[in-house]
Design a protein that fits this description.
By secondary structure, the protein is α+β, with helices and mostly antiparallel strands. Helices cover about 55% and strands about 10% of the residues. A four-stranded antiparallel sheet has the order 1-2-3-4, with helices on one face.
Length: about 160
């Protein structure tokens, strides 16, 4: 079992437990799906971070835009509890929505933790530093986006 703690948007801490790693048949499919989602944008992003050209901001945006599938987040958290409450199973829809509505950075960070714990994006030696750098940039961008939304004087878009 893997345990970690994350803050929500209000700063309250939540304890997560990954009950078990994903079984190989499910995990391998998730690994390949994640790799396929980030392969193109990640290549340009790595080149940009390494100073080999490219538009790092645009590549980061493409990478974030390519991962908009809520089903993927639910699959990643399929063996995870938040404060002892399962984020999976037939009765978890309300718990999942209650936990992450307006709390998207926490959801992203929980998914990152599960990805790391399951080794879905295991990289050759030396590449894990690149993944940490990307994670830090994603976190910084999400925090900046959250801060911009909180300070915006414009009304929210209508549904």
């Amino acid at each position: 079992m893997h345990e970690f703690t994350l803050p929500d948007a209000d700063g309250d801490l939540h304890t997560y437990q990954v009950i078990a790693r994903h079984k190989v048949d499910e995990g391998y499919k998730l690994m390949r799906r994640l790799q396929a989602l980030i392969a193109g944008p990640l290549g340009g992003l790595i080149d940009g971070l390494a100073g080999k050209g490219g538009n790092t901001g645009a590549d980061l945006t493409r990478a974030l835009d390519s991962i908009q599938d809520m089903g993927l987040a639910k699959q990643l958290l399929a063996h995870t509890t938040r404060d002892g409450i399962p984020m999976f199973g037939p009765t978890s829809a309300k718990s999942f929505n209650d936990a992450y509505q307006g709390n998207y950075l926490e959801l992203d960070l929980a998914c990152f933790e599960v990805i790391k714990h399951n080794r879905f994006l295991s990289l050759p030696a030396g590449m894990s530093g690149v993944l940490r750098l990307i994670q830090a940039k994603v976190q910084a961008k999400m925090v900046a986006m959250d801060a911009g939304a909180e300070t915006s004087s414009e009304p929210p878009p209508s549904a």
